[in-house]
Q: What sequence folds into this?
């Protein structure tokens, strides 16, 4: 089955700098790649996703890049703020039909220091 | 916005005990999921369902049963709880179709098996 590796287990940046979290996946059939955020002591919520028909997507300060050849995708958070501090999970899925199963990475704990 | 609730929020049981975790979603989503979150392992899928009466096996199903009784309700059953099942459990739901890819997570249930 699909395996998703999240390369940074922890990441520390200064407020205002950019943060980059990298993930790789194994299944070439995967075509949907979401990111979820978990603030301390809270549940997860969706932040951004990308599908395999594009290689870049931006939502405000969040940018997701996808390199299908390398089976790699990344989350870039620009102009980081203290409220960006959280655990970020990447995930991968094969879309279509009833296959709605996500495989998550182990998470990256991002600390934004002011 | 999707509403996913879980009960209980905290549970302590003993080895060999019988535990049922409950999840309810009120957005008429087809898909429901049970995950466990453990430090060093991230989020792992236990079971999921795409409708009442349906059950799909996840990635870490051993020791767990699940039942989807209605569109709204999904239960996770631990019939002989073991200390290795001490974890934070999340339920999630998702709509049907590629345009409804986001999973909505409940607040979590912290289970301790002594």
A:
């Amino acid at each position: 089955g699909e395996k998703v590796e999240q390369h940074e287990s922890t990441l520390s940046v200064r407020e205002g700098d950019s943060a980059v979290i990298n993930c790789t996946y194994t299944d070439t059939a995967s075509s949907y790649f979401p990111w979820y955020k978990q603030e301390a002591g809270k549940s997860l919520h969706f932040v951004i996703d990308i599908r395999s028909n594009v290689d870049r997507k931006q939502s405000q300060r969040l940018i997701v890049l996808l390199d299908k050849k390398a089976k790699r995708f990344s989350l870039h958070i620009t102009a980081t703020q203290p409220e960006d501090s959280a655990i970020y999970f990447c995930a991968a899925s094969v879309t279509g039909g009833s296959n709605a199963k996500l495989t998550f990475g182990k998470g990256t704990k991002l600390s934004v220091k002011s | 916005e999707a509403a996913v609730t879980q009960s209980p929020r905290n549970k302590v049981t003993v080895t060999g005990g019988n535990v049922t975790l409950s999840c309810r979603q009120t957005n008429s989503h087809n898909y429901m999921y049970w995950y466990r979150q453990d430090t060093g392992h991230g989020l792992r899928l236990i079971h999921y369902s795409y409708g009442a009466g349906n059950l799909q096996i996840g990635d870490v199903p051993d020791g767990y049963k699940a039942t989807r009784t209605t569109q709204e309700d999904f239960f996770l059953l631990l019939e002989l709880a073991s200390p290795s099942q001490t974890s934070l459990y999340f339920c999630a739901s998702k709509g049907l179709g590629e345009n409804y890819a986001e999973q909505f997570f409940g607040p979590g249930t912290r289970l301790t098996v002594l």
